[in-house]
């Protein structure tokens, strides 16, 4: 089937949640018209979360996350419940399925609260509505019967609408600019820069500036001073690669905003506040604390060098503490984060937004501070406060 | 085998040429250690050119083009010879295999002349040197025996050396610049531009300018005038997207160089002279002439719009002739080009250099003028002469 050609990561992820026997698997089969999950009346059939690529009309190819019951019991059961909660962090849309004959339980209420906290678009499905017909009109609730097919069509339409909710038009930097503003971009070129190209965040920033009817001026760090002198109109903003943050800071007059690509992209991905708080956690580090340094891809020599060599040494110098560092890269990301005093993540330019959101949400669930390379560098160099001035946080 | 994971297009293409029975297939087997091609003493076994992915040590994964004998006879035979000659256009390295017992024939000499004309790195292999042992030391010739394996190791070393010949360091625009020069890039953003990105040639140009210690100023066409006024130092060069060539021309003072991304990339790929001559062929177009408009990919809405809609209409207006247009896209490119009065190709940003070179070489073989979209647009708008001023052609 051609729909298999859409990679899982590019599909909208719909998480199905609910108590055991609420009918998660029957709903999945009813909406996709496929009989893939084992539907049974025995409680707890679905144990581990399974992500399945499916066609959900009228939406198209989606990924459906089938999760364990949120009322599971016993030691293993509690672990399963934990996994279900974790799957919220991967869900673009959450569907809470409730047995209409029982109504909303305390487990459902707890999950719903979490969904709302995480601001995940959601829908409550009152299933088995063939047995007890109470039709209520609530915007976030639909009454269906997986068994008879009642309202399944309407459920699919509602899901499609939720999933396709126009993303609020996000900009990288355009909201800080007026037409005709100049923006100076500082792009160092070292051996580790990719040959003959610009990295994605630089490209995206230049494009965003063009879209705002503004002008990008792209220089290496050794031309900041000369270029500033050459302009009759002051740039509104200087955006620098974090590697040369201190150089950019010293050459940029105090009346010109200065920030970094890392900060702009943390903001773009919705993680800036968390990442700034995360960076400040470095102040509380003590001897023998563990820090996780995590990289989203395995092939950026530049990030690797910063992550495994420069950051540990800067941090040791700054804190003067005996710190234990752990490193992960690529899709590798630990489940248990509480063991770390803080997490320092790369900018994640090669991870999709869902995965970055997942990692930030998991850290937040486990009260573990998380930040990114550039924001920590700014903090270590004492430039962070200046660099976040342009933003209202 | 992991070596299969290198796509054919990324492998160095080694073309094996020679008369029937000179031992092309035996040489191929001897150097790759595989027995893939039918080796036989019957003349003309290899009829159609076959491109095979192979491991050639010490070089690594290569593509070997096994071609029909260049002395084939009869109607079908002549067609095969023509196909062999065409395969020169796909070869990064050409190997001319000669039966040492016979020596160089007039067919070999003719092919060698063509190889030299096209400036393809080549090696002459005197095969069957076990029969008649004449060792000569010539830089471009090696004496081997596929049968006994004599000098096969040396042949492989020579091939690797030829194939790895350091490409002369090519720059897009850096050779026109002095450190600290300013370059103004005009990048229009219309509906057809890719969302949130810059197209590859724009990225590559900005990077090349950074590498030259110069400054890129990136603007939309509506900010050229204002930006020029804002600079104390004049830009050395304005580089524009061809779509807004006339706007850029009118706003750029005559003492500042003006050129386009199309022109820079034709130069970068070594096709500029041919493409300029190609554009001038529009002056000789007559009623009912056929023009081929060819696109390298199938997914750039921007190019499609220019190729299938705008160009035909501009050309009809300019020539006032009744022209027949044909269109191809993607890997599709006709074998017979003589039927066209001229070929107008896209910039080929998604085609690899070998494929673009192949198309330009084929057009040249068939005396068919070939140009690209941007260079033709410049000619039609009367800006071509100005736009090639920066280059010594």
UniProtKB/TrEMBL annotation, chains A, B:
It holds the Pfam family HydF_tetramer. Residues 274-390 form the Hydrogen maturase F tetramerization domain. Keywords: GTP-binding, Nucleotide-binding. One of its GO terms (biological process) is tRNA wobble uridine modification. Residues 14-128 form the G domain. Residues 172-270 form the Hydrogen maturase F dimerization domain. CDD domains: Era_like (cd00880). One of its GO terms (cellular component) is cytoplasm. GO terms for molecular function: GTP binding. This is [FeFe] hydrogenase H-cluster maturation GTPase HydF. It comes from Velocimicrobium porci.
